Amino acid sequence: MPLNVLVLGSGGREHALAWKISQSGKLSNLYCLPGNPGTAAIATNIAAGADDFEAVATAVSANAIDMVVVGPENPLVSGITDFLKERFPDLMVVGPSRQGALLEGSKQFAKDFMARHAIPTAAYRSFTSATLGDAKAFMKTLQPPYVLKADGLAAGKGVVILDDYESACTELEEMFSGKFGQASSKVVIEQFLSGIEVSVFVLTDGRDYLILPEAKDYKRIGDGDTGLNTGGMGAVSPVPFADAAFMAKVEDRIVKPTIAGLAAEGIDYRGFIFLGLMNCGGEPYVIEYNVRMGDPETEAVMTRIGSDLLSHLEAAAKGSLAGETISIENQAAVTVVMVSGGYPGAYKSQYPISGLEKAAAAANVFHMGTKAAGGDIVTAGGRVLAVTANAADMVSAAGKAYEAAGEISFMDCYRRSDITKDLLKYL
Ligand code: AMP
Ligand code: GLY
Hints:
Layout: E1 3-9, H1 12-21, E2 27-34, H2 37-40, E3 44-45, H3 53-62, E4 67-70, H4 73-77, H5 80-87, E5 92-94, H6 98-105, H7 107-116, E6 124-128, H8 132-140, E7 146-150, E8 159-162, H9 165-176, E9 186-190, E10 196-204, E11 209-211, E12 216-217, E13 220-222, E14 226-229, E15 234-237, H10 244-264, E16 271-280, E17 283-290, H11 297-301, H12 309-318, E18 332-340, H13 356-360, E19 364-367, E20 370-373, E21 376-379, E22 383-391, H14 394-406, E23 413-414
Parallel strand pairs: 1-2, 1-4, 2-3, 4-5
Antiparallel strand pairs: 6-9, 7-8, 7-9, 10-11, 10-16, 12-15, 13-14, 15-18, 16-17, 18-22, 18-23, 19-22, 20-21
Helix pairs in contact: 6-7, 8-9
């Protein structure tokens, strides 16, 4: 039976998920809530917030939705999956239960889970203001730099890395005093891992799993990984240093025990797991779990899946992933993110965007922060567009992505010019 599918969220990740789902032979109607001007071209947008559970329930009833795919972490951590399953027992939901979402919603939960299941990660302890003295004593036992993590969700800003003991102590006190609100009333302090990061994506039904294409993200605003952290300035997949031997270690040491651990603890988990990994001299360590896909990694990853994503999502939601096989295209995908000047600090919006059609002739242009205004598409966020090109190899894909991005312009537009350059040495 063809499915009516609702994708929750409004960014480039959701546009890329919707784009891939829209190609499925199993699809009847596709909706996005709230979606964006990019998803409007391939789906019906429903104006509401993804955190407004009642509005989501109304959209599910009104459109006879068979499956909800949850894009962002916030509704998952707030329990949207449990809420929807209680309201609509037959609805398929791609996204973990509230309990499963703790893997992202609480750093301490995630670290304790890894410890229980012997999953490689940085040594750590967690503290509250009542144990400030112990926290400082624990830091003394570590080598700098010091890694401090707010326990709860802090919009991607809750991790602070400091080079000296004194400033780490000051930061710790500020975190306990509410620097990240409730999220930092508990703080995880951990060992610094040095290496190169890679993101690995898994789709699971809580028992079986598919490993999606891996990707590398570019977090800093400036070329050469300089300047402030952002949501992500680009992505590449495959990742040249994540070779078969490394990926086999990831599967054996991390993917398998993670999923077996969820099952053993009776945690209902049907959805994506995003493993933020550090490759330390060829050995994988988990830096963080996310309970959703990455953005902008999804905009690269989706273009490399050859098989029917909706079929995989249906199997994940129903618990029948054992029968699924994923096919992954050999070609490379490179995503260049175009941002508003000033981002990740203050920036202006509402600037008309030109060249979208020309760029779309050679690349997939996923909308991250745009809005329709009159007949125009205008900027409406820090990260505005994710331009993804595919080619036989990484160098050609990067050339094509930059060429397509070059067709697009808006006032004060900025992008990094070095996406993939750090990886040339691994080719
Ligand atoms: P997270 O929000 O947990 O992804 O952390 C943000 C960033 O901080 C990561 O992407 C890493 O670059 C860095 N990071 C987090 N934990 C560690 C660690 N234990 N060692 C080194 N870098 C880390
Ligand atoms: N690109 C990193 C993230 O989605 O968290």
